[in-house]
Amino acid sequence: MTTSIQTFDFKMVNAYLVGTGSGFMLIDTGISANRKQLDGMLRHAGCQPGDLKLIVITHGDADHCGNAAYLRKTYGAKIATHNREAPSVEQGDMFLSRGAISPSRRMLKPLMSLFRLKKADRFVPDLFLDDGDCLESFGLDATILHLPGHTTGSVAVLTADGALFSGDFLQNRTRPSVATFVDDATALQVGLDRLKTLNIRTVYPGHGKSFAMSDIQ
């Protein structure tokens, strides 16, 4: 059975609505400025309050989780992410899910602080996800992959029919590639080597258009 996927393209970032046996699952949410557009997209897709069962946050950067708290309140969905992303989403600081701050990253911190979650958009996750967790209890035949490298707690969702929702671990800003904003280059390479051994048909990245896994060199 082919997974039902709708891409919500907010230009700067993507979110993905996945049909399940019991309703819908949303992977990432866009930024708070996308809220009205996201609401319209969900309702146009037939996802009403009560139909959204789970929100998977691939990592705690504000462009991926900026609407999670709102959606939980409005649609009744549970929010799930890796436990290493909890400090970021609870305190609104994306650097809390990253390792030691290098000199180059320290220079970027004032700029990136513009992407902090507002207090009203911060949240405590309902569930924590880890490598190998199955999402069948939410109606989707899919597995969680823990893929540190962009952040320490980055996760991806791999469906049984080969759709990979990669967050920012893989991207397609100008071409298919691994993350360009890297926390741990060694972990990133280990994760990429692992992905190349899996049955991945199509990658749905956090940024840019979907692409075939074979497009990653």
Explain this structure:
It is a single chain. The chain has 6 helices and 13 strands. It is α/β, with parallel strands linked by helices and 217 residues long. A hairpin with a 2-residue loop joins β2 (14-20) and β3 (23-27). It is globular and about 40 Å long. The chain has a single domain, classed as 4-Layer Sandwich (Metallo-beta-lactamase, Chain A). The strands form 3 sheets. A 6-stranded mixed β-sheet has the order 1-2-3-4-5-6. The chain has helices spanning 35-44, 62-65, 68-75, 86-91, 103-112, 185-195, and strands at residues 5-9, 14-20, 23-27, 52-56, 78-81, 127-128, 142-146, 155-159, 163-167, 170-171, 177-178, 202-205, 211-212.
Uncertain runs with pLDDT below 50, 5 residues or more?
none
- Tertiary shape: globular
N-to-C SSE series?
EEEHEHHEHHEEEEEEHEE
Average residue-wise pLDDT: 93
CATH class type: Alpha Beta
CATH fold label = Metallo-beta-lactamase, Chain A
CATH architecture: 4-Layer Sandwich
Quaternary status = single chain
Please list the strands of the largest sheet in the order they lie side by side: 1-2-3-4-5-6
Main β-sheet: number of strands, strand sense, barrel status?
6 strands, mixed
Over the alpha carbons, how many angstroms does the gyration radius reach?
16 Å
Number of separate domains: 1
